[in-house]
Amino acid sequence: MGVRRVGACNLSLLGKWCWRLLNDKEGLWYRVLKARYGEKGGRLKERGSHCSPWWRALGRICEGVGEGVRRWFDDNIHRVVGDGRNTLFWYDNWVGEIPLRHKFPRLFDLAVNKECMVEHMWRLGWMEGGSGVGACWHGRKRV
Question: What predicted TM-score, i.e. pTM, was given to this entire model?
Answer without folding.
Answer: 0.58
